[in-house]
Please model this.
Amino acid sequence: ILNVEQSPQSLHVQEGDSTNFTCSFPSSNFYALHWYRWETAKSPEALFVMTLNGDEKKKGRISATLNTKEGYSYLYIKGSQPEDSATYLCAFPYNQGGKLIFGQGTELSVKP
Amino acid sequence: DAGVIQSPRHEVTEMGQEVTLRCKPISGHNSLFWYRQTMMRGLELLIYFNNNVPIDDSGMPEDRFSAKMPNASFSTLKIQPSEPRDSAVYFCASSLMGQGTDTQYFGPGTRLTVL
Model:
């Protein structure tokens, strides 16, 4: 059974703080690693799909890195804003097909 | 561009009733996924289709759940009979080719409450 672990489970920061959280996944049979952002009462929205070891992706103040050999990815948010408050999910493909195994998410709360 | 469309957005029904959830994927996408979100299990895949064919239904909880995709632009998830433990948010998502590297685009979800 594939296990995708995210830590911490929740995070509370002040506006302007930079923060990061972790996604751990099986390092064997790697195909890709997905990051999604999920705001309360909305649907998950794709942030990044990462495929190469050492890959780094950036979208505004959010960036992610990937280490496929040791099986982890970091998501960084620089200068957090209240609108960054959401649950951040990572997902790992079960195989080369489309089935994604999602982690439980990191719930980020940014206080003004 | 229209994203993934789901209906209804909210459904309240009584135990034992049949419930049908509907999904229209993004035009041109070949893969469609049904997920369920619960507090206990998070976001779990129920079933997915490639080119209208069910590929993996190992996440379907039991025989009370069934899903169909009669054409490339429509899918249904049916629960018959419904039970209170089926209460959850059900998401439909679609992707271009159904590969592990493809982004999945989620619909707004259907919040199901079974009394």
Observations:
- Chain B has no helices and eleven strands.
